[in-house]
Amino acid sequence: MSFSAELQRIVELGLELRDLSQYENFEAVLIGFGNLPQFFDTLFEVCAASLFSRLETTERLRFAPLYKVRDRQKRPDFDVHSRLGVLSVECKRPHSLVQRAAETFRVIARALHQAMKAVDWPRELRLGVEIMAPLREAPSSLAERLVNLALAGPREDGAEIRHGTVRAFVQLRKSPFCLTDVRFGHDVMILDRDEATGLFNPDFTMLRVVNNGLGHQVAQSVGRRLAEALSQLPSENGGVIVLGDVPRRVADGAIARRIDEPAYGRILAFVVHEADDFHFTYRTYRPDAIQELLGSGPRPLVPAA
C-alpha cells in the first residue's frame, strides 16, 4: 500500500471515529483497539459501523449490546435502529493464520507485477501463474527469476514454465486463459485506450496469479466464521453478517451455500467488504427490505466545518 493510501485511510478512520463517538456504548470500540490481537477486527468493525451510521434510514446505533442467546450472554458488534426495526450486526474476518497466508499470496502477486514492470513486459502477452505449494525462496527473487524465464523461453501461445513450486503460462493477451476455475486469485489489468471496462475483463488482463489450495483454506475459514457470527446474533432481531478481507468470489460461494438454510433464516443480509466497497447479498424475496434499509446509500464522510 502506498503512503498516500495509508494517509487517506488514517484520515477516514479519524472521521469515522468522530462520527461514531456519538452513539451508545462507543467505549466498547475503544477497548477493542486496546487489545492488540483484536486491533484489525476492531478496525473492520468501525468501517462497517460507519457505513450503517451514514444510511439515511439509520436512527441510532448501540455498540456491544447484551443479549441472551441459548442461555448464554452474547454481544453482537452493534445494533442498528432503523425504520425496519432493530438489526443486530456481526462483523467477521478469516482466522489469523489464513489472513497471514492470504497476505503472503498478495505479496507474491505484487512482486510478480513489479518484476513485469521492471522488464517492460510486452503488452501483447499475458502471464498466468499458479502457486501449487509453499514457496522455497523469497517472493521478489522468485518473481524476477520467473519473469526472466518467461521472456527467455518460447513465445508460442500457452508455453508452460515450471520453477520450484510454481508453474506459469505465457500467452497472447487476446487468447483464453490457460489458468481457469480460479477460486483464489489476483488479476492485474492494463488499459490500452480510454475505454470503460468491467473488473477482471480478460481482454485487458496482463497477469493472473492463483492459489486454489489457499482458496480452500479461506473458504473453510469463512464457513466457520459465518457459523460463529450466527451464534452471536439474537433471534428477536433481524441479523446482518459482514465479511471482510475475503475475495469476493470466495465469500459469494460460502454465502450461496448458506443463504437458503433454515438456520440462517433470520439473517436479512450478508455483506462483503472488498476494495473499499460493500456488496449486499440477500434472499430473492427480500429486495424491498434491503432497498428500504439502504435508501439512497451512505452519506459521504466530511470534515467538520
Please provide a written account of the structure.
With 305 residues, this protein is of the alpha+beta class. It folds into two domains: 172 residues, no CATH class; 114 residues, no CATH class. Helix content is 38%, strand content 25%. The protein is built from eight helices and 13 strands. The strands form three sheets. Strands 1-4-5-11-12-13 form a six-stranded mixed beta sheet, with helices on both faces. α1 crosses α3. The longest helix has 23 residues. The protein starts with a helix and ends in an 11-residue tail after the last helix. The mean pLDDT is 88.
Write the layout of secondary structure elements.
Blueprint: H1 3-20, H2 27-34, H3 39-53, E1 58-63, E2 67-69, E3 72-74, E4 78-82, E5 85-92, H4 96-118, E6 125-131, H5 139-152, E7 159-163, E8 166-172, E9 185-189, E10 205-210, H6 212-232, E11 238-244, H7 248-256, E12 267-274, E13 277-281, H8 287-294
Parallel strand pairs: 5-11, 6-10, 11-12
Antiparallel strand pairs: 1-4, 2-3, 4-5, 6-8, 7-8, 9-10, 12-13
Helix pairs in contact: 1-3, 2-3, 4-5, 4-6, 6-7
Fraction in helix? 25-40%
Shape: elongated
Strand order of the largest sheet: 1-4-5-11-12-13
Spans of at least 5 consecutive residues whose pLDDT stays below 50 are none
Total separate domains: 2
Report the span from N to C terminus: 30 Å
Annotation field: number of helices = 8
- Please state roughly what percent of the residues sit in beta strands, choosing from under 5%, 5-15%, 15-25%, 25-35%, 35-45% or over 45%: 15-25%
Give a count of the beta strands, DSSP E runs of length 2 or more. Answer: 13
Q: Calculate the mean pLDDT score and round it.
A: 88
Main sheet attributes: strand count, strand direction, barrel closure: 6 strands, mixed
Radius of gyration: 22 Å
Quaternary assembly? single chain
Helix-strand topology string: HHHEEEEEHEHEEEEHEHEEH
